[in-house]
Amino acid sequence: MAVAAVSWELYEMFEAFLRAPAYHLALEALLFVWVLWLLLRKSAPADAGKSKLTEKEKEELIAEWRPEPLVSSTPPSDYVVNPRIISSKVGRTVVVDGRSCLNLASHNYLGLTELEGTQEAAIGGLRRYGVGSCGPRGFFGTVDIHLELESRLAEFMGVEEACLYSYGFSTISSAIPSYAKQGDVIFADEEVNYAIQMGLLASRSKIYYFQHNDMGDLERLLLEQQERDMADPKKASVTRRFIVVEGIYASTGDICPLPELVKLRRRFELRLFLDETCSFAVLGRTGRGLREHFDIPVSRQQCSSALLLFVLN
């Protein structure tokens, strides 16, 4: 039986070979020859076809070669050659190379670092509490001065509560994703600072950037969002909408047009994130920031943040 089966298979293969088109057989033959050539051919040496240099040519190349220095030359204007020596505390002015210079490289707008008693108070705080809270706020990183400062800040700003962060960068970058989630919509000024950008990215919300301080462009985006909401009311009912701006923009120094922004917020029912890092203790009659500067009352639909590191240094 086995012999008969093998014979029958060979017969079928032979019949299939006879029925195959000529071009198919020619293509398979060429493919077989090409594979056989690849397997049997000898590889040429790497230097085949290359002319060898004469001794004279080698000597000329060696004579022409100029090695690069291991260490590049230092320009005369480099700081290493002409270092600037600061011989005073950093404040409103600073002594550089024996000359008193106005310090424009600091956020010490109010000169609080030079107030009498500031240094003594800082030393007293270090001796009592140490350097840093040494732990997260929710565990063992909260001490009495944190709670006292939060209470006094909330009272000063006229808000329900205030929350301190140990790291200023994480304040706004974590506050935004704490409220805005995937599926929400955020309208942000195109010049917002890097910390805000990271917060927008972490929120996974749909982000629309409007032109810097252009309330007309913001209104256009809000009207487009309104049309999308009307087309899908079910989705719109669970979608939260936010505006994210700065009081004074760190990248441009421009003041946010808060009155126009508040009108749009009320008209389109939006929540507002306001970063007052550069405007807190700078704008307003008593330093309460942008709201006091424009005489706008506190809103429950507003979240403000600021880095005390800047103006309070």
UniProtKB/TrEMBL annotation:
EC number: 2.3.1.50
This protein's record includes keyword Transmembrane: yes
Cofactor requirement: pyridoxal 5'-phosphate
InterPro entries according to UniProt: Aminotransferase_I/II_large, AON_synthase_class-II, PyrdxlP-dep_Trfase, PyrdxlP-dep_Trfase_major
Keyword terms, alphabetized: Acyltransferase, Lipid metabolism, Membrane, Pyridoxal phosphate, Sphingolipid metabolism, Transferase, Transmembrane, Transmembrane helix
One GO BP: ceramide biosynthetic process
GO cellular component: endoplasmic reticulum; membrane
Ranges annotated as spanning the membrane: 20-40
Pathway this chain belongs to: Lipid metabolism; sphingolipid metabolism; Sphingolipid metabolism
Gene Ontology MF terms in the entry: pyridoxal phosphate binding; serine C-palmitoyltransferase activity
Keyword Transcription regulation (UniProt): no
Residues of the Aminotransferase class I/classII large domain: 101-277
Family: Belongs to the class-II pyridoxal-phosphate-dependent aminotransferase family.
Name of the featured protein: Serine palmitoyltransferase 1
Organism annotation: Rhipicephalus microplus (Cattle tick)
Phylogenetic lineage: Eukaryota, Metazoa, Ecdysozoa, Arthropoda, Chelicerata
